[in-house]
Amino acid sequence: MALSKLDNLYRQVILDHSQHPHHHGHLDTVDHEIELRNPTCGDVLQLEIALEDNRISQIAFSGEGCTISQASASMMTDAVLHKTPAEAEVMIERFSDMVIGDRDEDWTILEDAAILQGVQQFPARIKCATLAWKALHKALNSDTNSATTGQIVNHAETEGTD
């Protein structure tokens, strides 16, 4: 498959996840929830998680944002559903490494989200792509089950502090 055809396929998958997001909405029962904002571009994401038997049994997101942030949230929810929090944390780290180009690994653990690897070529879009993943990390590691609000201010700063 020619590179341009592959790029076109990736664009189509991203657009499909953005226009028809999976797990978009709200949960009836929530164990962890968080709202994160990307003040650079105005993306706002609310994430709700329900755990059962130490697994993410349900996950939903809502909010507004660009195509990349919405597609990334949709792909992330697909990828982490039914995973343990520890498995999700590995995926969060792997996704972050992928979009900033830190390591060259097998990204298949990320499922559809692996196609967002190309975001590393557009530094301004890295915050958009990582917003949902940062929200998941913060929600899973919060001391409270209630909603918390935060901002992704500087991607470089947040990498070392989480």
UniProtKB/TrEMBL annotation:
InterPro entries: NIF_FeS_clus_asmbl_NifU_N. Pfam families: NifU_N (PF01592). Residues 10-128 form the NIF system FeS cluster assembly NifU N-terminal domain. One of its GO terms (molecular function) is iron-sulfur cluster binding. One of its GO terms (biological process) is iron-sulfur cluster assembly. Belongs to the NifU family. This is SUF system NifU family Fe-S cluster assembly protein.
